[in-house]
Amino acid sequence: MILTVTPNPSLDRTYEVPSLDRGEVNRATGERVDPGGKGVNVSRAVAAAGRRTIAVLPLGGAPGALVAELLDAQGIEVAPVPVAGATRSNISVAEPDGTLTKINAPGPELSSAEAESLLETVRQQYRSGDTDWIACCGSLPRGLGPSWYADLVARAHAARARIALDTSGPALLAALRERPDVVKPNAEELAEAVGRPLTTVGDAVKAAEELREMGAGAVLASLGADGQLLVDGSGAWFGSAQVDAVRSNVGAGDSSLAGFLIAGGRGPDALASAVAHGAAAVQLPGSVMPGPADLDPSGVTVTTRIPVDRVLTEPVS
C-alpha cells in the first residue's frame, strides 16, 4: 500500500482548445474535472495500476467535498483533514501541440492546529496499515513553514517508514537534512536546488549526486522529453521512451513517481516502470493517469551508459 500526502490539493479543471487567443472568446472542444495535487495524482496512478492507496490531504469547502467524491469514485481511500479554508481550484488550458497554460490558485492558509492534525493523520494512517511507501508531494500551503516536510520525514523515519519526497525550493532543502529515501525533482527543481544552470544530461547527473551528498538516499530526476535519471548509492541509470505525440504533461511526473514506487522504488527496474508511466501519461488528456493497458514497457530503454554530453532539449538557466 502506498500512502500519499498532499498538503495543498486542488480541484483541477482542464479545457482543450484548438488554440489559445488572448483577449478573445475561446471555445473548448473538451473539458475534464479532476482531483488535483501531486500526491493526489500519485494515488490516482497507483489506483489505476490496481494497487491500494490512501490519500491524506486537507479539505475544505465545496471544492474539497468534490475532490473527496472524485477520489472515492476512482477507488481511492481518502483520509481527510478538515480545514476552515476552501480547497483551491486550478485551471489548465491544453492546445493540440502540447502547450499547456496553467492558472494555479494559492489555496487556503492552514492554522498551526490544522498543520499538526495533518501530521498526526499521516502517523495514524501509517500505523494502521501495511504501508510500503509514504509519498509526500507538492507545494506547501500558506501556514506551513519550509521545515514542515522535514518534520514529516523525521517522524516517518522514527516509525521506520520509507519516504519519497517530491517538492522544491526551501522545503526540499530543509527536508534533505532528514535524509528522505527518494527525492523526485524535475530539471528546473534540480537546477534550483544546486544553484546553477543545467545544460546537459551530465550536468543533471552531477546535480543529482550533489543532492545525495546533501541527504537524499536516491534521486529520480525527470528531464522532460530527454528522459529520466536515477542516481543512488549503487550507481546511475538513464531511462527514455519514444513518445509519438504529447497531449498533456499534467501529472506526468506524478505518474512516473507512482510507477517507480509500484515497482519497488529501487534500481533500474523501478526506473523502467517510472519511464513507462510518464511516457503513457503525456499521451493522455488532461491529468488522466495511465492504467496497465496504456503502458508500453517494450518501448522503454534503461542503461548505465548515460549520454552525459547530450544537450537538454530544454536547458535550465
Describe the model.
There is one protein chain. By secondary structure, this protein is α/β, with parallel strands linked by helices. It is built from 9 helices and 16 strands. The strands form 3 sheets. Strands 5-4-1-8-9-10-12-13-14-15 form a 10-stranded mixed sheet, sandwiched between helices. The protein starts with a strand and ends with a strand. The relative contact order is 0.15. Residues 13-35 have a biased composition (Basic and acidic residues).
Topology diagram in text:
Blueprint: E1 2-5, E2 10-16, E3 30-36, H1 38-48, E4 53-59, H2 61-73, E5 77-82, E6 88-94, E7 100-103, H3 112-128, E8 133-137, H4 148-158, E9 163-166, H5 169-176, E10 182-183, H6 187-194, E11 198-200, H7 201-213, E12 218-222, E13 228-232, E14 235-241, H8 252-262, H9 267-281, E15 300-303, E16 311-316
Parallel strand pairs: 1-4, 1-8, 2-6, 4-5, 8-9, 9-10, 10-12
Antiparallel strand pairs: 2-3, 6-7, 11-16, 12-13, 13-14, 14-15
Helix pairs in contact: 1-8, 4-5, 6-7, 8-9
